[in-house]
Amino acid sequence: KGWEYRQTGEKEYFDMLVGGKNNFAYEVLYIISGKLVGIDYIDIGLDGISAVYFITDPDFSKYSLGVFSLLVQIELAKKLGLKFIYLGYGVRENKSLNYKYRYRPLELLELPSKFGLKPIWNKLEYSAENS
To answer: Cα(42)–Cα(14) distance, rounded to whole angstroms?
Structure first.
């Protein structure tokens, strides 16, 4: 993606992606033929799974591992009796974040224009214009 490489030690890695004071953060490893090809960071909450971050080996991009990881999360949520998968921020203008609009059903949290107002959840149904 052209992002600057930043050396990360074991402690920084744990603090940034896995650590915390509660036991809800999980690291899911994806291995093909003995090679680690993807790492999925998820939080499991009371009503759903939050897709925190996914890292993939670019040599395996043809396998669409990000999509596969989402399917794994959906199956896990079903097994655990959880209702939601939270994909986090979606930004249409950002190619790393706009994929989230392809999934349906989708509920969007629209923040109010003024602080202190209650956020509004809007359901986005499928149509060619908003995919």
So the answer is: 13
Average pLDDT, the chain: 80
* Neighbouring-strand partners of residue 25: 43
Mean pLDDT along residues 82-106 = 85
**Integer Cα distance of 65 and 29 in angstroms:** 11
Query: DSSP characters for 18-80?
Result: I--SSTTEEEEEEEETTEEEEEEEEEE-SSEEEEEEEEE-GGGGGG-HHHHHHHHHHHHHHHH
For residue 122, which amino acid is it?
Answer: N
pLDDT digits over 15-58, tens only?
666 666 566 788 899 999 999 999 999 999 999 999 988 999 99
pLDDT of residue 131: 44
**What is the rounded CA–CA span in Å between residue 76 and residue 117?**
34
Per-domain residue ranges for the chain?
10-86
Assigned CATH for 10-86: 3.40.630.30
pLDDT band at 125 (very low <50, low <70, confident <90, very high): low
Query: Could you give phi then psi for residue 41, rounded to 5 degrees?
Result: -105, 120
